[in-house]
Fold:
Amino acid sequence: YTNNSGILETSNMQRTTVGFNLSPKFFNGELSINANAQGSYVRSQEANVVTGSASRMNPTIPVMWNYPTIGNSGLTAYNGFYNILLDNGAPNTLASQNPLQELKDRKSIGNVNSSTGNLQIDYALHWLPELHFNLNLGYQVSKNTTHTDMAANSIMQWRTAGLTNMGSAGAATRYQWYELQRNTMLEFYLNYRKDFTAIKSNLDVVAGYSWQKYDYHGRSQTYVNSLGFVTNNGVIINDGTNFVLDYDQASAANIGRPVNDAPMSRWANHLQLLSFYGRVNYMFDDTYLLTVTLRDDATSRFSKDTRWGLFPAVGLGWKINNMSFMESTHEWLNEMKLRLGWGVTGQQDVGSYFPYLPIYTESYQQGFQYLNPNGDGSYINPLYPEAYDATIKWEETTTWNVGLDMAFLNNRITLGVEWYLRDTKDLLAETIVSGWNTRDKVLSNIGRLRNMG
Structure:
């Protein structure tokens, strides 16, 4: 259990964590199981970041101010926090808000429930102990919720135009945010490893399959959470001597209603990766080395026509110091290995989840809406098309390398020299395009790149 208070007032974090780890073995060690899981609950109160407004606020003015106020609410105007106002008592929207009020009249509570776990099973065949079956399962899940309460009659609420527009000027609001994240994986592979002493050989073979899925979805909305106040054309009433704060009973119908009738914000994404892979390591006489690998990878980021990528690689090694003509150097030369490699790797991690699909984003922003042609005065939220490339595919990098590794005097001195040539084609990058009226860039495969050194 951890309880930490932050530097800013009202900030705090409490975390409770529990976990376990098990590592039993069965059948004289032929079956090994490793299991672990951990769960945590975090409750945090996040302080509004007010360092900017605090640095801009005049340090000679008071923090609190007893504004003369009458009315059936029983409240003091602006909850007694000093703010810079216009002559009619309305907030000066060009001035900074009272930073202490931004802390005290805003309460944001976050709750995170998360868990991670892993199960690994390794089984060696009784009649062929060199062959191992390995299964690896893992998960990570996180449920996140946040609610942020803004106090009624605070300077922030009086400056919220959406409340005034719907007849709930100065009312309290509650912002609710929810997101669920899940990450699951499965990997299964066979591993055969054996020394063939009769022919001075060592063989290590791996063949496997892996699957991973990551997805998340969430929603957020801001609701009216109290009565509003009677105003003078949307402005707090000031009779010249007193502020007048009367609850507006007509605004009761707005409690629980989204501020300004904004649509609920929703989001979701999903990524899935698949791989079939194999690797062969062969060593002869502890001198000659050969490694061959092959991967066939798929990603949900690309269409079914370009989703799969095949990536081979070959590596050769020669331990020169183990040759008979190098025996005289063994007292001072511990290693001298020449390496040669060639391979192709793929890249698909481009940030966007569906860059090949035509996706539309709903816009709810003042100035971006259109009047409904039916004449009722309502607005239509337009759908803006995102730029996409239906033929986007894997970025591929082919690498050649030659290296020499040496070690001297019982490995006290080491030397490594390497030359490489790396060619990348179908580079994944954003490029400027014409013909779109809502986007000027699109993620696509463009150009080639060569590195050497």
